[in-house]
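Changelog note: in this version the structure field was regenerated for every chain. One regenerated record is shown below for reference.
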Amino acid sequence: MLNFVWLDDFRTLAATGNFSRAAEERHMTQPAFSRRIRALEEWLGADLFDRTTQPAKLTEVGEWFRGVADELIVRVARVPGEARIVAEASSVTLRIAATHALSFTFLPRWLRSLESRITLGPVQLVSDVLQRCEALMLQSKVQFVLSHAHPQAQGALDVDTYLSVQIGKDTLIPVSSPNDKGKPLHHLAPQSGSIVPVLQYTTESGLGRIVRAVVGRQLESVPIRVAFTAHLASVLRTMALDGRGIAWLPETLVEEDITAGRLIAAAGDDWNIPLEIRLYRDQSPAASAAEAFWSTAAGR
């Protein structure tokens, strides 16, 4: 019988071609690791590696099995989520993953607007960075993902397997705290020559993905210094309010700060990034409550 840990063993060895290094990465001795690879080959009835070369190379069967192993691992990862879908076919609970920025600002108002057209049951919300929200959807642990989106920054859910609908708009605005004259304390001016402190998102952040894709090249014309890095727009907002640099922040998050003059635009409108707010779901049929929620959100 196939032991699924053998698949990870196989992928590790296929990547390194070195039994000692692969065994170390799998936290076991080389003899024990070699026995597991041999057990997988005996189960298949064919050699997966040519051991006469250094590094070890995949045989023709090994090349074929690499694709099979990847498919099996992805399929097995989805099984618990699919089991939950079957078990919850009659559930009225909505499971939503939303990025932090939208969880605190857009989501509550949007749900309230939907309640005039549909009766919502219990809602289980996971608030996290986009990368983890996408992972929850890929594992079928949530029914919906709510996030910012931009055509130039495609994510894991922007594929045919998933459906999405735009349910709102937003704008990323480069903002700074004002100086004592009401002007931006920090200003994006390519010709000034002054080094500009920038408050940056981490690679796990969906907003960071968008900023890098849309204005990353444009930023190369400005001398900048990364002064602070964080997952959350709310953290970068705090740093911007404290005068530590320029941050691209969602208008939905900072509109009150801008109105009150606590934050002001640090560049021209050509540095603004228009955003879509999108709701994602799997194409597979969901519980009746989730389908009704989707239809209402999509305006059907």
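Spot check on this record: The mean pLDDT is 91. The first strand starts at residue 49 and ends at 50.
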